[in-house]
């Protein structure tokens, strides 16, 4: 998606050869017009799939997922990192390993909002090691719903998450895949 | 906003005489069409104000704030509950007291995205004790920006947060104000 790649080139900030900061438009400050375009692009790519629900994880996946849900005309569901005090009843849980914090935590959704009749599109802002996506896939599996695919705004192609998901036979659509952040340059695949 | 009140009546769940669960359309599962209508309504109410930025707090404020930002054509900024490892540099901080957890925590935004030239509209999904709003107001004050007002989807009118904000001279626009949840009934003001 050229609009996104241009935005990453213009506004992304590199920290070393591993971290790309896009908090001016994606995951702290948010550019609503860009989110709307991203929503349209994911909807276009998955429009043949009869998606019934968009699933993401709080917090920075929510904006993207909302625009996808709006375009597809289906509800959006976000997994919570902590079980809310008002989240009564049965939940579906997935495990997410955090490499930066070196710990495993649970994410969960209420079982009321996901079931075997659903065809789920997972949406997230970033894909690197793939742990958030794997946790969301675990939730989809636990709910007996069907998984239509995973839509990612920015995939770090030099980290193994995307490769692993595709090896599992999952359709992964990434709007920008970064091949390298070395030598202070952003190189797309 | 009648559409919202109807939705609350139809899909809201009461727990005792104090808790209204709206996690089927607002803060766990999200109804994108409703969010779009809510965004339009806030934009209509604040269109004379020359808003330059919409500010909210993760996670459940993000969806509403995004649609307001889209309608007003301005960026959305969400305060984080934990300082992210990639959030370098100066931040503006506000304090939020959690009554359910009986603790005070900091919320913060990067100083890059808020400054004295901004006219800020604070958006949140719920207003009860008003602590999240007060924390966001503290951030706006610390940044020297102007505060245009506070937009709330559901205000619990029987708790003191809204009254306190209005006493401070702040314009508060709530799309649905709940007067009482007693006797298993939702009564709007």
From TrEMBL, chains A, B:
It catalyses: XMP + diphosphate = xanthine + 5-phospho-alpha-D-ribose 1-diphosphate. Pathway: Purine metabolism; XMP biosynthesis via salvage pathway; XMP from xanthine: step 1/1. It is found in: Cytoplasm. Its main location: cytoplasm. Keywords: Cytoplasm, Glycosyltransferase, Purine salvage, Transferase. Xanthine binds at residues 20, 27, 156. CDD domains: PRTases_typeI (cd06223). Residues 32-157 form the Phosphoribosyltransferase domain. One of its GO terms (cellular component) is cytoplasm. It is an enzyme of class 2 (transferase). Its EC number is 2.4.2.22. It holds the Pfam family Pribosyltran. GO terms for molecular function: xanthine phosphoribosyltransferase activity. GO terms for biological process: purine ribonucleoside salvage; xanthine metabolic process; XMP salvage. 5-phospho-alpha-D-ribose 1-diphosphate binds at residues 128-132. InterPro entries: PRTase-like (IPR029057), PRTase_dom (IPR000836), Pur/Pyrimidine_PRTase (IPR050118), Xanthine_PRibTrfase (IPR010079). The keyword Glycosyltransferase applies. Belongs to the purine/pyrimidine phosphoribosyltransferase family. Xpt subfamily. Converts the preformed base xanthine, a product of nucleic acid breakdown, to xanthosine 5'-monophosphate (XMP), so it can be reused for RNA or DNA synthesis. Homodimer. This is Xanthine phosphoribosyltransferase. The gene is xpt.
């Amino acid at each position: 998606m050229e609009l996104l790649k241009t935005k990453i080139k213009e506004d992304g900030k590199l920290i070393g050869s591993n971290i790309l900061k896009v908090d001016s438009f994606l995951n702290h400050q948010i550019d609503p017009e860009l989110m709307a375009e991203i929503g349209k692009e994911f909807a276009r790519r998955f429009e043949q799939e009869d998606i019934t629900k968009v699933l993401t994880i709080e917090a920075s996946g929510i904006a993207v997922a909302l625009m996808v849900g709006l375009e597809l005309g289906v509800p959006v569901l976000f997994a919570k990192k902590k079980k809310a005090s008002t989240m009564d009843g049965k939940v579906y849980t997935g495990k997410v390993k955090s490499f930066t914090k070196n710990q495993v935590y649970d994410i969960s959704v209420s079982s009321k909002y996901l079931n075997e009749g659903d065809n789920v599109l997972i949406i997230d802002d970033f894909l690197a090691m793939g742990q958030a996506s794997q946790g969301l896939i675990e939730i989809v599996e636990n709910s007996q719903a069907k998984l239509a695919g995973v839509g990612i705004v920015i995939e770090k192609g030099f980290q193994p998450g995307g490769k692993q998901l595709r090896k599992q036979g999952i359709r992964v659509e990434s709007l920008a895949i970064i091949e390298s952040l070395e030598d202070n340059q952003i190189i797309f695949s």
